[in-house]
Amino acid sequence: MTGTALLFLELFLTFFVIGLFTIGGGYAMLSLIQTEIVVRHGWLTESNFTDIVAISQMTPGPIGINCATYVGYDVVSAASGSPALGVLGSFTTTFALVLPSFIIMLMLVKFYAKFHNDKIFGGVMGWLRPAVIGLIGAAAVILVLNTAWDGVPLFSRPEISVVKENFPDWKSWVLLGTAFICSFKFKVNPILIILAGGVAGLLIY
Amino acid sequence: MERADVSLKDLFLVFAKVGAFTIGGGYAMISIIQEEVSRRGWLSDDEMPDIVALSQSAPGLLAVNISIFTGYRLRGVKGSIVATVGAVLPSFITILLIAALFGNFKDNPVVIRIFKGMRPVVIALIAVPMIRMAEKVNHDWTKWTVSVLSLVLVAFLKVSPIYVLAVIIACGTAFYYWREHR
Fold first, then answer.
1. Predicted complex ipTM
2. Is the Cβ of B98 closer than 8 Å to some Cβ of chain A?
3. Structural domain that includes position B67
4. pLDDT tens digits along A3-13
5. What 3-state class would DSSP assign to A200?
6. Fewer CB atoms near the end CB (10 Å): N or C, chain A?
7. Closest Cα in chain A, distance from residue B49 (Å)
8. Both B115 and B147 in a single domain?
9. Under an 8 A CB cutoff, do A59 and B91 touch?
């Protein structure tokens, strides 16, 4: 039992550090999780992890959260043989992953509220806004080109496999174009558009 | 700047909805948040670029950071907790179901077809709020240059977005500090 308690503590610390050092979004986080869980601790095998990454990309929700939840369940239920403890493992990893964001974001929001009308802060925000627009555009382009950035090279790490089937054929482009017109011109609810995309996929593929 | 009229229950439900339909990363979340949050009059459209900018500058996941920020803006610390739990819970439940019961989920042909249809649609939903933000924010060619430059750097030259933001924060702070104190 003490072994399991120690595993929980180790998982908590590992995912807290991953949350703290993830700079540059979900894909950078996957690399960190892989380095820590597969390479350093050996809690999961490479092929286990590859499956988890594929499922994390296919399910709704932030990819880093999906991956952390899955890893927490797999590692603990494999070590203890109990699915119930696995659920607790998921909770531990997900909570630990979000906690650093929480602390830092709360400080940042307070900073934002205080310096909202400051000339220097306002000046910098004036340039951050157009840059962020570029970053959002880049996210779309990256999804079309099927390439993912690797984040900040804080740690050396192995390559990550990414689902590379965003655009299998011309039908994908028709779907993209139709969705764009529905959203941009007719302001259709985005959730409705996503659901319609799923139904369309089921019908045409 | 808090909004007492926004109930924590509504905040939770809206973010659970956002979490459940976020496919393809934090940026895909923006259009859904804008639809759900602006329509209710909780935040103005002008605040969205600021929220994304600060959320991307902090460590962690963009989707989580956006939830924390928006929740805090509406109902303080309590709101940030409720919004984050709401955004994370659908993922958590979905993944647990798959991990415990449907290990072969990713090879299911029906699932594969549904996601083949959803992925291109999500890309359109990332592009639309970008264009709407650009219409509001980019008033002159200098701002357009910054947008295009950061897009090219990140998408084609594979520079990490954090470097783009760090350079702007550093240079901008130095420049405006110099202008205020010379």
1. 0.85
2. yes
3. 8-137
4. 888 999 999 99
5. helix
6. N
7. 6
8. no
9. yes
**Statement to judge: residues B23 and B41 lie in one domain:** yes
**Chain B environment of A51 (Cβ under 8 Å):** 106
> In chain B, whose CA is at the least distance from the CA of A51?
B106
d(CA B2, CA B43): 10
Provide CB contacts within 8 A for A7, sequence distance 6+.
Answer: A75, A76, A79, A80
Q: Which residues of A touch B50 (CB under 8 A)?
A: 112, 125, 129
Residue of A nearest to B56 (CA): A24
In chain B, the number of structural domains is 2
Question: What does the pLDDT read at residue A1?
Answer: 59
Spatial contact of B162 and A152, defined as CB atoms under 8 Å apart: yes
Query: How many domains, chain A?
Result: 2
pLDDT tens digits, B72-83:
989 999 999 999
* Mean pLDDT for chain B overall: 88
**Residue B1: inside a domain:** no
| A105 with B72: Cβ contact below 8 A | yes
Sorted by sequence, the CB contacts under 8 Å of residue B19 that are 6+ apart come out as A60, A61, A62, B63, B67, B86, B87, B88, B89, B90, B91
- Asked if residue B76 and residue B116 are part of one domain, the reply reads yes
Residues A109 and A193 in one domain: no
> Cβ of A84: how many Cβ atoms within 10 Å?
11
Q: CA of B12, closest CA in chain A: separation in Å? A: 15
User: B95 and A198 in contact by Cβ < 8 A?
Assistant: no
The answer to whether A63 contacts B87, with C-beta atoms less than 8 Å apart, is no
pLDDT greater than 50 at residue B16? yes
